[in-house]
Amino acid sequence: MAGLTPSQTVGPWFAYGLVPNKEYDWSDLATGNLITPDVDGERIRIVGRVVDGDGKPMPDAMIEIWQADSQGRYAHPRDSRARTNSSFKGFGRVGTNADGDYRFDTIKPGAVPGPNGAQQAPHILVAFYSRGLLTHMYTRIYFEGEKANDSDAILALVPADRRSTLIAKRDGSASEPVYRFDIRIQGGDETVFFEV
Amino acid sequence: MALVYPLESLKAHPPRPYPPYKSTVKRSPSKPLIIMPHTLSELTGPVYGHETVQPGDDDLTIHGKTGEPLGERIVVHGNVMDEDGRAVPDALVEVWQANASGRYIHVGEKHPAPLDPNFTGAGRCITDKNGHYKFITVKPGAYPWGNHHNAWRPAHIHLSIFGHSFLSRLVTQMYFPGDPLMEFDPISQGVTDLAARARMISSFDLDATVPEWALGYRFDIVLRGRNATPMES
Ligand SMILES: [Fe+3]
Questions:
Q1: Helix (H, G, I), strand (E, B) or coil at B49
Q2: How far apart are CA B117 and CA B97, in angstroms?
Q3: Mutate to test the interface with B, among A7, A106, A163, A192 (most CBs of B within 10 A)
Q4: ipTM higher than 0.85?
Q5: What CATH number corresponds to the domain at position A139?
Q6: What is residue A172's predicted lDDT score, i.e. its pLDDT?
Q7: Does some domain include residue A6?
Q8: Number of H helices, E strands in chain A
Q9: Which of A41, A136, B14, B152 has its CA 20 to 30 A from that of A110?
């Protein structure tokens, strides 16, 4: 078996290469807007703040999301279920801003197959990178108010008192569906990260 | 528990935190990570094909405003493969790096070394059917950072690679052979397994060296994952 190439930190200066966002002379491979003109599903916005172990916002983090379409299908050859002709890719990538905030505009994913033939509750995968993180981390965004959260096999692995860190809260004041998902790297209400 | 990719492999990666690299202390989780089975969500991932890159995206020396960048022109190439040693074709490889003087174009960077109007330092390419990739660039300079007194990063190129799945994502750095700064660098030394650390060092490649033009370096990349039969769910 070939040995893995080890991970290294993304460092502080990744923006112009990975998330140039029109501030740099390089094209974006992916942005925070996953919406395509022909995509089906409920449009949602996900917002959040990233803070370190001192509670300080992290202005130099990068977040990637990976999700299924509104019918729970991934745009990947391993998901052999028939897809519509939607151009929805399901991948987004942003850097946090000076206040440590980030934002994605996407659609709410459908339920996807899980362990033992059961469906998983709608969720979005997150890969998290920053200066000071030698190996990136994984977490998941679930959605407040989803009945299926109660029977989700992955949430069930998380101690009950920490599950809420994985559930994006619906912002009641917004007319459009906005969900808040803060990421706290460390501390009492530390976000759950997964070893996968 | 269905672990399609063995967790064993993750031991190659540096720990969180690694206190000699100071920023890791407040930016690493304090609670244990939750081990979970690999589901379709983890075993799929974004697919970026050849339409993703433009001609010339793999040559960091041709985007200058007035000419070619300063510095030592190099060819960096290698194969992307999985843990079974099988080629990973159509993998997206993105790179970013400092210029020959050790300066990034990022607006936040304060290192008093000159910017080069002919070098932005970003590139990308897609591996061919044999998993091979190649960039033309210049050798990046070393640069200081504030981690500790007299802290300097060894010359390195940052790489981001998409493999078979979201679990295969890799962000790493490629170093150069014989760099005396490496042993004083808490970022590369964060990889505590010596064999794994050595895999981050490219090798000088005379065959890839182009006479009268550029030095060649080879850097092979091994991603998480096995080229196993797709899991049916
Ligand atoms: Fe760097």
A1: coil
A2: 15
A3: A7
A4: yes
A5: 2.60.130.10
A6: 80
A7: no
A8: 1, 12
A9: A136
Q: Residue B164: is its pLDDT beyond 90? A: no
Burial A42-75 (b: 16+ CB within 10 A, else e): eebbbbbbbbbbeeeebbbbbbbbbbbbbbbbbb
List pLDDT tens digits, range A147-164. 999 999 999 999 999 999
Q: How many domains does chain A have?
A: 1
CB contact under 8 A, B82 and A194: no
Contacts of B208 (CB under 8 A, 6+ apart): B75, B77, B216, B217, B218
Catalytic residue among B73, B156, B164, B224: B156
d(CA A178, nearest CA chain B) in Å? 23
Q: What is the pLDDT of residue B229?
A: 47
Confidence band for A82, pLDDT divided at 50, 70 and 90: low
Chain B residues in contact with A191 by the CB 8 A cut-off are: 29
Nearest CA in chain A to B12: A6
- List C-alpha distances in Å: B220 to A196, B161, B192: 24, 12, 20
B44, A79 contact by CB (below 8 A): yes
- Residue A128's domain comprises 43-184
Q: Would you call B50 an interface residue with chain A, using a CB distance cutoff of 8 Å?
A: no
Evaluate whether B23 touches A131 at the Cβ level (below 8 Å): yes
Please enumerate in sequence order all residues whose Cβ is within 8 A of that of A43, keeping only pairs 6 or more positions apart, or say none.
Answer: A35, A105, A106, A107, A176, A177
Q: Which two tokens stand for residue B90?
A: 């159509």
Distance CA(B190)–CA(B19), nearest Å, equals 9
Per the domain annotation, does A36 fall within a domain? no
Please state whether the peptide bond connecting residue B17 to the residue before it is cis, i.e. omega within 30 degrees of 0.
Answer: yes
Yes or no, beta carbons of A1 and B24 under 8 Å apart: no
pLDDT of residue A85: 59
Distances (CA, A) of A180 to A33, A106, A129, A171, B44: 16, 13, 19, 7, 25
> Is A132 a domain residue?
yes
β-strand partners of B222: B81
Give the CA-trace dihedral at A154, A157, A161, A166, to 10 degrees. -20
CA of B97 to the centre of ligand 1 (A): 6
Please state, in angstroms and rounded to a whole number, the distance separating the CA atoms of residues A66 and B99: 32
In a domain, A31, yes or no: no
Distance in angstroms (rounded) separating the CA atoms of residues B158 and A10 = 7
Distance A95 CA to ligand 1 centre (A): 17
